[in-house]
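tokens incoming
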């Protein structure tokens, strides 16, 4: 598929109608408007939008908890996925937090495309959260990106348990 010419910028409150529209199309249990408002209100967070020709294509929400960054939501308009939008947003987040920062996230084990994307950025599976997803009770795979995971190890991941990702 053709790459898209992107601009990555700060996500703002005026983007929220478009964010909610993408969120509802992309996820079986979408975030609510108040959840996005809360994250945009946190001064220490990183909330970014990807746009092209003035159209919002996706967004990423990353919060800081002590010394760890947590990617809480990554979404791209379903019609525009697998065209580099999520990669560009993750690259921008890593650039802002520093390449040596500890970053974590949760992902459905059935979301093989997202898992492959995160692995390309050096994230490794390091545990599970039981019955994490409300819509179907599916577990979440906890993934981390740290100095150790970039070497293929989990040495510096808190409470890491090597977690095989189940085949879809």
């Amino acid at each position: 598929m053709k790459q898209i010419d992107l601009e990555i910028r700060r996500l703002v409150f005026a983007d929220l109608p478009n964010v909610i529209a993408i969120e509802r199309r992309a996820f079986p249990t979408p975030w609510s408007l108040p959840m996005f408002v809360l994250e945009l209100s946190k001064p220490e967070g990183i909330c970014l939008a990807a746009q092209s020709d003035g159209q919002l294509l996706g967004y990423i929400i990353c919060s800081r908890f002590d010394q760890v960054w947590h990617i809480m939501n990554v979404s791209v308009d379903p019609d525009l996925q697998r065209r580099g939008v999520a990669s560009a947003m993750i690259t921008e987040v890593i650039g802002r937090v520093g390449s040596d920062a500890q970053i974590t996230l949760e992902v459905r084990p059935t979301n093989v495309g997202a898992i492959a994307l995160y692995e390309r950025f050096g994230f490794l599976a390091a545990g599970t959260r039981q019955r994490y997803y409300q819509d179907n009770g599916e577990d979440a795979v906890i993934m981390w990106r740290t100095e150790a995971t970039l070497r293929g190890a989990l040495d510096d991941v808190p409470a890491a348990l090597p977690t095989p990702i189940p085949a879809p």
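note: The chain has four helices and seven strands.
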